[in-house]
Design goal:
It is a single chain. By secondary structure, this protein is of the alpha/beta class. It has one domain: Rossmann fold (3-Layer(aba) Sandwich), CATH 3.40.50.1240.
């Protein structure tokens, strides 16, 4: 069994973000036009991998990426453990009932009403997730992934999560074969 990590396509947040300016306040950012094109392009490569199971973060950009890549493929399972480190507005999620309106053919009933990090919010409504909390979640997700041996699996997720799992930042729609190396999580900062 192989595990493939696929970072989402470019989001509208990614397209306009400038570190010097700061957070552009685009909550749960969808894919940009370029991000949709990246996902459609990745579909051809991924089709050759024989993926039987797909896990996606509940953030809109990952769901959209998974739908573009796995159109008419395996069912997409939503797993909130695969979410991004909450550090910007784009990482703030939406409740399951809102997601279900946009993606009615997917199941969100198993995720909490507020499945993203809960903490003290700044003036813009963003509760920054402490690295220790994120690293613990990434380690738990990694341990769970290693128990999934029955089928070839793809996880459509995020840059910081995959950096914690692999030691490097994946490009948008990059497909990376996950190999467990050691028992720890790589530092993301």
């Amino acid at each position: 069994m192989s595990i493939y990590l696929i970072r989402h396509g470019q989001s509208v947040f990614n397209a306009v973000y400038d570190a010097a300016i700061g957070d552009p306040l685009i909550f749960d950012a969808p894919l940009s036009k370029m991000g949709r094109e990246q996902a459609v392009e990745a579909r051809g490569h991924v089709a050759q991998l024989g993926i039987e199971r797909v896990i996606a973060s509940p953030l809109t950009r990952t769901i959209e990426t998974a739908l573009h890549i796995f159109d008419n493929g395996p069912a997409i399972e939503i797993d909130s453990r695969a979410r991004e480190l909450l550090s910007n507005s784009c990482d703030v999620g939406r409740p399951p009932n809102e997601l279900a309106k946009d993606f009615p053919h997917l199941s969100f009933a198993h995720i909490s009403e507020r499945w993203w990090h809960q903490g003290t919010e700044n003036e813009h409504g963003v509760a920054h997730e402490p690295l220790s909390v994120f690293e613990r979640r990434a380690a738990e997700f990694r341990d769970w992934l290693l128990t999934q041996s029955a089928q070839s699996l793809a996880v459509v997720g995020h840059g910081n999560l995959f950096k914690a799992l692999t030691g490097r930042m994946l490009d948008n729609c990059e497909v990376h074969v996950f190999e467990a190396s050691g028992s720890g999580i790589f530092p993301i900062r």
